[in-house]
Amino acid sequence: HSVREFLLLPFADTHELQLLDFALFLGIYLAALLGNGLILSAVACHHHLHTPMYFFLLNLALLDLGCISTTLPKAMANALWDTRAISYQGCAAQVLFLVFFFGSEYSILSIMAYDRYVAICKPLHYRSLVGSRACAQMAAAAWGSGFLNAVLHTTNTFSLPLCHGNAVDQFFCEIPHILRLSCSDAYLREVWALVFSVFLAFCCFVFIVVSYVQIFRAVLRMPSEQGRHKAFSTCLPHLAVVSLFLSTGIFAYLKSPSISSPSLDLVVAALYSLLPPAVNPLIYSMRNQELKHAVRKLFYTSSFSTNNMHKIVIGFLQTNTLSANS
C-alpha cells in the first residue's frame, strides 16, 4: 500500500477549541470508565449478583470500555497536540477492535433479551436453559463471532488499493470513510459484507423485539404489581440501550452518500460510539435496585477501608514519633 498514514477529521479549526474538545472528551471518557468500572466491581464483588443477567451485564460493561477506549484516547491525543495523523497500522487496529467490540456487544444484547425472555416467560425452565455452562458458551460465541466478523471486515477493507488521498472525514477510522478513498470496484465486496452484517444485526433486532413482545404480554398478565414493576425495571433499560445502539449504528453505515456531510457524520458517529458506553451504566443502574445497593455498598466498603487505612497510618506515625522522642 502507498498510504503510510491517514488524516482524521479535526473537531475544531483553532487550537483553543481543540483543547475544549479535549476537556469534553476527557469528561466523557472518565464517566464511561467510572460507570462501567463500578458495574464490573459491583458484579465481581457481590456474590448475590453472580446470576446470568449480571454476568451478561458484566460482559456488556467490558465491551463498552473496549469500544470507547478504541476511539477516544487517539481523538483526545490529536486534540491535545493539534494533529490529525494516525498511522496505517493504527487505523487498521481501530477498525479491527471497533468492529470486534460492536459486533460482540450486539450479540450480548441479543443474549440478554433471550435471558429476560426465559426468566419471565419460562421461569420453571430457567436453570436448565440458562445455566452457568450455557452462559459461558453464549458469551464465548458472542466474543468469538465478533472477532471473526472484525477480521473479515478489516482484511476486506485494508486489502483495497487507495488512490483518493488519505483524509478520513471522521474523528476515528470508520469503514465507509475508508471505502471512499478506494479507487477500484473491489470495494463493492466490502459493501456487500457490510450489508450482510447489517442484515444479521437486523435479524437480531427482530429477535429482540419478538422476545420483548412475549415478555410484555407475560408481564401484563402478572397478578402482582410489584412483580410487574420489577420485570419492567429490568427490561425497559435494555430496550432503550438496544434502540439507541442499533438506530445510530445502521444510520452511520447505510445512509446514502447524498445526505452525508462531515458535521452530520461526526454527530452520528459520536452518538453510536461515545454515547452508549458512557450512558449504558446509568440506564442499567437507574431502575435496578439490586445494582444500586451493590454500588452503594461498594462505596461504603471502600470509604470504610480508606478510613481504617488512614487511622493505621496515623497510629503508626504517632508511635514512631513517640518512640523517637523518648
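(the above was protein one; protein two follows)
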Amino acid sequence: MGSGSGIYSEGEFSLDAKWLVDPKQLLVGPKIGEGAHAKVYKGQYKNQTVAIKVVHRGETPEEIAKREGRFAREVAMLSRVQHKNLVKFIGACKEPVMVIVTELLMGGTLRRYLLNLRPSCLDMRVAVGFALDIARAMECLHSHGIIHRDLKPENLILTADHKTVKLADFGLAREESLTEMMTAETGTYRWMAPELYSTVTLRHGEKKHYNHKVDAYSFAIVLWELIHNKLPFEGMSNLQAAYAAAFKNVRPNAENIPEDLGLIVTSCWREDPNTRPNFSQIIQMLLHYLSAISPPEPIIPPRIYASENTVFPPESPGTSSLMAARHDSGETPTSNREDNSVGFFSCFRHCY
C-alpha cells in the first residue's frame, strides 16, 4: 500500500517508492546461486542485466514471520547504504513473492575464485587489495550502525575483471544496539566470532550481547584465507572449528604470514572483542603494509625536447628514460543478454 509520502509500507516492510520494483518488468533467466532460504537468478529489469534474489517465505507461521522480518531488514539496509564495495541495490518488492534486485557482478564469488586458483596463492598485493575492498565495505556499514554478521568468501563477489571485491548478502545484518540482545548462532561457524556462541553449549537461538567487533574477527579469518588460499581450520568440521575457536581459543596458524600483516590478522581475531581494531584502523594498517611491499612508482620526468646534438652529462638520466611513453589500456567487460529469460510470474511457478 502506498502513502502520500512516497513510502510503500506493508507490515514490517516499508520502502521508499523509488526503490519499489515492478515485478511485471522482471525477466528471470538462469539460476546462478542458491542458499538455504533463497535462490539467485540472472535476469533483466528495465533493460538492465541484474541479479534477482527470490526469498522463499517458509511453510509455518513462525518461519514466514522470521523470513519476512529478515527480508525487511535486508531491504532497509541495502536501500540506506551505498558504497563502491557494496553490491549496488536496485530495488525490491514483497508481492507476489519477496524479491531483491541488485547489480549483477560477473566475476563470481571469492570462494569460487580462490578454489579455481588452488594450489596457487594470490599475489600478496592482490590479496591485500581485496582485503582493503572488504575493509572499506565494512567500515561503511559500521559507520551506519550496521553489523553484517556473515562475512565470508561466499558473500564476497568479484567484478568481471577480477580486480574489485564487493560485499553482498545482508540477510543476517542487524542494526547495532547497546541494549538489544541479539541472537547467537548467526553466520557460518567457521568464520564466526567466539562471542556469538553460548558459553555452555551451541544452542540455537541463544541470546547474547555482542557488538560490531564480531565482523573484525570474521575479517581476520577471511584475510588469513586470502593469504594462504586454504580453508581455515582445515581438517575440522564447521562445528568442530566453532568449538575450538570458542572454547579452546584455537586460531589458524599465523606463523608464516609477514610480520606486519600477521599483526593485523592476530589483532582482529583476539578473544576479547574490545581489543580488536575497528575497520578504520584496519584500513590504515593495510595501506601501510601495501606501501611497504609496493613502493610508489618513480616519477617519470617530463618529456624534454632537445636537438639531436644535445649531449647529456654523465650524471643525467639516459634519453630512453626521459622520452619514455606510457601506454595504458583498459578493457570494459561486457555481458551477453540471455535469450532464454522468462517472465517473472512464469519463473515463480517453476521455482518452488
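Reviewer note on protein two: The mean pLDDT is 78.
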